[in-house]
Automatic annotation (TrEMBL):
GO BP, sorted A to Z: tRNA pseudouridine synthesis
Stretches assigned to the Pseudouridine synthase I TruA alpha/beta domain: 8-93, 147-252
HAMAP family the UniProt entry points to: TruA
Functional description taken from the UniProt entry: Formation of pseudouridine at positions 38, 39 and 40 in the anticodon stem and loop of transfer RNAs.
Gene that this polypeptide is encoded by: truA
The name this protein goes by in its record: tRNA pseudouridine synthase A
Domain of life: Bacteria
Binding site for substrate: 110
Oligomer and partners: Homodimer.
Chemical reaction(s) catalysed: uridine(38/39/40) in tRNA = pseudouridine(38/39/40) in tRNA
Cited InterPro entries: PsdUridine_synth_cat_dom_sf, PsdUridine_synth_TruA, PsdUridine_synth_TruA_a/b_dom, PsdUridine_synth_TruA_C, TruA/RsuA/RluB/E/F_N
Pfam families: PseudoU_synth_1 (PF01416)
Active site residues per record: 52
Amino acid sequence: MRNICMTVSYDGTAYNGFQTQPNQNTIQDVLEKAILALTGETIKVTSSGRTDAGVHARCQVINFYTASKIPVERWCMALNTLLPADIVVSGARLADDSFHSRRSAVQKTYRYTIRCGKHPDLFKRHFEFYHPTALRVEAMREGLAYIEGRHDFTSFCSVRSTKLSNIRTVYEARLECEPQDPILQSYAIHIYVTGNGFLYNMVRIIAGTLIQVGEGKRSGGAMLEILNARSRAKAGPTAMAHGLTLWEVLYDQDATIT
């Protein structure tokens, strides 16, 4: 048996998240069906993280064990001929038997994108949350800085979370602005959050709260007050799923899987 590690990108618009669910269309189900068609094996794939319905991935990492003799360099091309156009396998390698795409990950980065201004970008409408007016970017940057470090993120976690601990470490949180599109008269704001792990809806709640900061409904400093309150009721709404993308995953071997 070989342990195969793969990098998968997908547009999550048409799917009910990554993880298999009864009577639902999920990324995991589609991948496993493609592997079955290719190898004749019924295999369960493991992912670096469970993205929700409508959430995308630039760099989702999976692994699975197979008895297939297909050369590792042929897996991507072979699977991509069986996958729909909104799922692409872009990398495959042999991994140690102990490698686990989720437990072996040392850090992950998510990106949340907001388009602000007069018109949305129709070509990116599935990947950007549209906000029709400008946001206070510097206030959002100020607020974002408070979440860096090791904290109890209860305020930024869904009450549906089943994790035993809400303590996580955010290594970096930054905001980048693209130049305004002269035709659309709008611009994209990208919020990047890198950490050792994430709670259920954590990045989307952070983004939803930051949008309120950008609208002037809260100050940048309110992010620290919300964090210290350790109460979901103190934070803002959960931002729409389609603005979120699993951006990058890092592993112990000091290699970025992209």
